[in-house]
User: What shape does this take?
Amino acid sequence: MEFCKDTSMEMNDGYRIPVVGFGTYAPDTVPKSKCEEAVKVAIEVGYRHIDGAYLYENEEEVGRAIREKIADGTVKREDIFYTGKLWSTFNAPEMVPSALEKSLKSLQFDYIDLYIIHTPLSLKPGDDLFPVDGNGKLIFDNVDLCATWEAMEACKDAGLVKSIGVSNFNRRQLEMILNKPGLKYKPVCNQVECHPYLNQRKLLEFCKSKNIVLVAFSALGSHRDERWVDQSTPLLLEDPILNALAKKYNRSPALVALRYQLQRGVVVLAKSFTREYIEDNFKVK
Assistant: This one.
């Protein structure tokens, strides 16, 4: 997994992944139109790796932004590396093709560059993204992830996706796929939360040993959703050591946090809806 001059990394299937990607997740408080504009700005700035997901409910807007930048001659489709994700309500193997078809239709793409299992947790199939029972507890589904992986392999064989990988998997779950009898394609990546406060050192070492790319989301610190994160926990970008390094090298704390990942051989996702920050984050290269 060597860096090359065009700042991409070769994956174990021979395809290359740009080492800096643009994240498209946005909370419900952010209008979909704002995400669409941000993707266009990101492409204008130079991002070629766009990270999306069915769960984000904005693939239509993201696809439209990408197609607009193709139409105006900024990029060609083959210049863009788009990551899509199989949501947990579609983990049952027979549902994988229809889930992929939904994303392709929303994006209006013929193929997705990288398609990954969003989480190893399977949820009850249906229209609800987070199905809950009468007590508000999530309703899980019992799915063999090895069967899900075989369905992912079939999508690759059909030419609908170029590369396949996973997200939020631990070592044991990765080994389950890697040791699967009749494995046709190894996961090319494992996308996980990763930043200086959660550096994933052991998981990174394992992934490197298996030639699996680690992709870091929340690289600038955990997404501070009040439902999951204690609001009194320290903010990564306010960390004194990070800020001292930023001052020393005349860079923003965000750039130091992103550069930290690149120097570890990690593909990093940066997210912002502000042109100034979108431009600044891309300077990490």
Residues 1-5 have pLDDT under 50 and may be disordered. The chain has one domain: 8-282. The chain has nine helices and ten strands.
